[in-house]
Amino acid sequence: MTEKIKKTMENLERNGIKAFFAETKEDVVPLVKSLVPKGSTVSNGGSVSLNETGVSALLESGYYDFIDRRGLEGEELRNCYIRAFGCDAYFCSSNAVTENGELYNVDGNSNRVACIVFGPRQVIMVVGINKIVPDINAAVRRVKESAAPLNTQRLNCKTPCAATGQCISLGAENPLMCDGCKSPQRICCNYVVTAQQKHKDRIKVILVNEKLGY
After folding, report:
1. Alpha-carbon distance 123 to 96, whole Å?
2. What is the rounded distance in angstroms from the CA atom of residue 163 to the CA atom of residue 148?
3. How many CB atoms are closer than 10 A to CB 183?
4. Are 22 and 29 in contact, with CB atoms under 8 Å apart?
5. Mind listing the pLDDT tens digit of every residue in the chain (214 residues)?
6. Residue 184 DSSP code
7. The pTM is what?
8. CA dihedral (41, 55, 193, 159) positive or negative
9. Which residue among 60, 76, 134, 170 is the one 20 to 30 A from 38 at the CA level?
């Protein structure tokens, strides 16, 4: 475990967020099973990190009562989101985790950030070391330079960052957090900084000693 990871985990704990360390992505699923009992009601946000670690496959395997939003539209999708809001465990990643122990997340539809803030009994984030940044300013820049452009490309969104590989706001001298395009397919709509978890250990962060996701 590097000093950077150790510092990040200590500060997450100081902020009321339970931190776990996984040396490899193969270590994540056994850890998840130890944290969430079989048969629990679970749901998830879209996440490449969950796919890469096998967590998505676990959720879909029948081991848990999985609230599955895939293929749903309209009222069915909305009802699925509402059910997920009350689940036992919600799985996602984080766009960035600061060495100060803060979580930074940016969403378009925002069902993910809503569940991070309130609702599910626990939130379990699977986060690769590539998402650890020094501070919130670096987290903001990370989303504009990496996370948002790669996710818009993955989701086939017609946005400037999907075409150029970076947010248009980076052309400014000091781009602000909320600066960006006005595309109707923009995925950067709501910005959530988790500085402290009021309900201690409700949010759990599994830091994986590998690069995962965007």
Report:
1. 15
2. 12
3. 16
4. no
5. 899 999 999 999 999 999 999 999 999 999 999 999 999 999 999 999 999 999 999 999 999 999 999 999 999 999 999 999 999 999 999 999 999 999 999 999 999 999 999 999 999 999 999 999 999 999 999 999 999 999 999 999 999 999 999 999 998 888 899 999 999 999 999 999 999 999 999 999 999 999 999 9
6. T
7. 0.96
8. negative
9. 76
